[in-house]
Amino acid sequence: MKVITEVQTVCTPIPTGIPWYTINLVQSLLARRKNEYALTFFDKDKERKNYEKYIEKYFGIYSPQLFETNIYSYKDIMMSNAKTVFETKSYNDYTGAYGDIFHFMLPLWLPERLNGNMVVTVHDLIAVLHPELSLSANNAVNCKIGFELIKRKKPVCIADSQATKNDLCRNSNITEDSVFVVPLACDPNIFFQEKDEETLKALNIRNPFILYAGTVDDPRKGVINLISAFENIADKASDVLLVLAGSHCQRRGWEDIKEKLVKSKYRERIILTDFVTPKQMRNLMSMASIFVFPSEFEGFGLPVLEAMTCGAPVITTNVSSLPEVGGDACVYVSPNNPEQLAFEIERLLNSEMLRNEYINMGFIQAKKFSWDKTAQMTEEVYKYAYDSR
């Protein structure tokens, strides 16, 4: 079976989110060598040599065939009427890519004419179901376009979690038997337990500290609630810091975060690291007294898995996909409830035995996920799509 995978998103020096998914999945698929693979992208605004550079960087000495389009740019496609894109000529003719299966790593656009079966990964429906939680108005619009394309094209879909599958099937004409849950994993070369005090020194952090990791100004991540919870316990836990490890781009939620920090009387104990390296992140997760991820909505919730892998006791919310990832190994709270979050933070801070119990359960839970398993399950989806022709 020949599989064409779309790798548009990997052309970035600092991959996160969907680029990381694409990189790790394709690496694992190539390593398994169960199928023949070729890679494609469609943005004429990017030079081919840039793509070749990142293909070599992320996929090593293995060099799959690389195709490109010369017709549309990403902007052209997103701004056009999706029905007209590739109407006069097939996607295959434009790209030169012919195969049995075409896997699109996100549903921002799907070709109108395609010789081959289509598989699309749907990571979440946040921007469609909760546009107020989207990072930007443009992001919400683009995701809505992609969702409408899925409803019209009805491809075989991969969902990161059962929660995402449920959202997709409830809000579209996609049937349950054409949506497959394929969980993600964390990169074992990046996330493992490592306690290097130099990381703390470099970031001007000391023990003990509570850690959050993720985009700081994403309104759905619950950072304001976390700050409120920290303020509730700060006097009793007078030596504890709150570390917010992640970048912010002054997007939709930044002004609210900034105002909350300015008004906090504990501002000097709240540290914003901005971007941290993968090595720094695993050390922060390994040395944190507690990892807190109070998100309101997640397609998967990878930081929870990463923190468990690194040996942090985890508090997260009891919504969307997060209980699927955390299993019985996390403490769960309701979103938008800083009082309950403060109670659970204080409870864990006051009991080393309880923290160790959740750390050990976290190690066991984290072992249930691997990129090889994700790749194997993805291959099974390819076979289903191929047999359904």
TrEMBL record:
Family matches, as Gene3D superfamilies: Glycogen Phosphorylase B
Keywords: Transferase
Keyword Transferase: yes
Protein name as it appears in the record: Glycosyl transferase family 1 domain-containing protein
Organism: Anaerocolumna chitinilytica
Domain of life assignment: Bacteria
Keyword Iron-sulfur: no
Annotated ranges, domain Glycosyl transferase family: 206-360
Gene Ontology MF: a single term: glycosyltransferase activity
